[in-house]
């Protein structure tokens, strides 16, 4: 690739030397014809440019998101980790934009990533799209087995969503005890079997599983506060708790977390709206 790029550069140098004489700038490029061989070499050099050069010329990237959504945030973190510049468009979920409806007609949910004329929906699908489109700073491990393992845990965590939701929804003594016990059990499995003694799920650096579980580091604590039960603390889940601290210390994460008090107010409103009325 280096050779091809070098060739591209030397073709450009030759072209600059042989460019039509002009009395100054601007040069009239329309008078400047490339030989077929020059055009082919330049085309090849452009096609094989490394991903960081792609950033300079890539088609526009837009993200339709919602400020309080952990699903939007995992995409934001991925784009930031890759250094992909993008335009963020905040959606009003009570009055969805035509842009959202047009780009995700199936379920009209955020996040949606628009890349040039293509739209990708579903946060996990978007994360894989990002990782494949901009392969530098990989989010999934290289080896097939390691990728399969990361994908297993992502599926496991997503499928346990009902357990976490039951915890969020629990408000009577017995029901709350059961939901808390089940939540701790799931988190213990994640801690022991997926995280082990690593700093991050991705090893020394954060990877796709870290981004998927990222909501435990910022949103879960808010749910605990609303439910009035602490689960993810240093005494019950020491390694997972340390992971939440390490995760939030990564600059890209730290700089891209919604304000906690604003988030608490938002979820408080939603939480008390869904609880059964005390008058009933
Ligand atoms: N499975 C989806 C979930 C996305 C989701 O739940 N988005 C919510 C906001 S957090 C949404 O768009 N809600 C509006 C609606 O469902 O009408 C993903 O991972 O992207």
UniProtKB/TrEMBL annotation:
One of its GO terms (cellular component) is cytoplasm. CDD domains: GST_C_Tau (cd03185), GST_N_Tau (cd03058). It comes from the Eukaryota. Its EC number is 2.5.1.18. Keywords: Transferase. Pfam families: GST_C_2, GST_N. Residues 143-272 form the GST C-terminal domain. The keyword Glycoprotein does not apply. Residues 59-138 form the GST N-terminal domain. GO terms for biological process: glutathione metabolic process. The keyword Mitochondrion does not apply. GO terms for molecular function: glutathione transferase activity. SUPFAM superfamilies: GST C-terminal domain-like, Thioredoxin-like. It catalyses: RX + glutathione = an S-substituted glutathione + a halide anion + H(+). InterPro entries: Glutathione-S-Trfase_C-like, Glutathione-S-Trfase_C_sf, Glutathione_S-Trfase, Glutathione_S-Trfase_N, GST_C_Tau, Omega/Tau-like, Thioredoxin-like_sf. This is glutathione transferase. It comes from Vitis vinifera.
């Amino acid at each position: 690739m280096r050779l091809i790029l070098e060739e591209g550069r030397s073709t450009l140098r030759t072209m600059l030397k042989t460019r039509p004489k002009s009395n100054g700038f601007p040069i009239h490029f329309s008078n400047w014809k490339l030989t077929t061989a020059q055009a082919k070499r330049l085309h090849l050099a452009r096609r094989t440019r490394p991903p960081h050069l792609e950033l300079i010329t890539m088609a526009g990237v837009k993200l339709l998101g919602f400020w309080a959504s952990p699903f939007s945030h995992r995409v934001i973190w991925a784009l930031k980790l890759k250094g992909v510049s993008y335009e963020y468009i905040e959606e009003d979920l009570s009055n969805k934009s035509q842009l959202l409806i047009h780009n995700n007609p199936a379920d009209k949910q955020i996040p949606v990533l628009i890349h040039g004329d293509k739209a990708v929906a579903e946060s996990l699908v978007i994360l894989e799209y990002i990782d494949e489109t901009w392969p530098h700073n990989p989010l999934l491990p290289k080896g097939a087995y390691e990728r399969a393992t990361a994908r297993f845990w992502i599926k496991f965590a997503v499928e346990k969503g009902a357990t976490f939701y039951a915890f969020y929804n629990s408000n009577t003594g017995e029901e709350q005890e059961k939901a808390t016990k089940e939540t701790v059990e799931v988190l213990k499995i994640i801690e022991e079997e997926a995280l082990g003694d690593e700093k991050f799920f991705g090893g020394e650096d954060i990877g796709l599983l870290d981004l998927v579980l990222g909501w435990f580091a910022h949103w879960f604590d808010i749910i605990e506060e609303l439910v009035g039960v602490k689960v993810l603390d240093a005494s019950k889940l020491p390694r997972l708790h340390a992971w939440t601290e390490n995760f939030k210390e990564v600059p890209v994460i730290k700089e891209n977390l919604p304000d906690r008090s604003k988030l608490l107010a938002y979820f408080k409103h939603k939480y008390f709206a869904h609880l059964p009325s005390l008058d009933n």
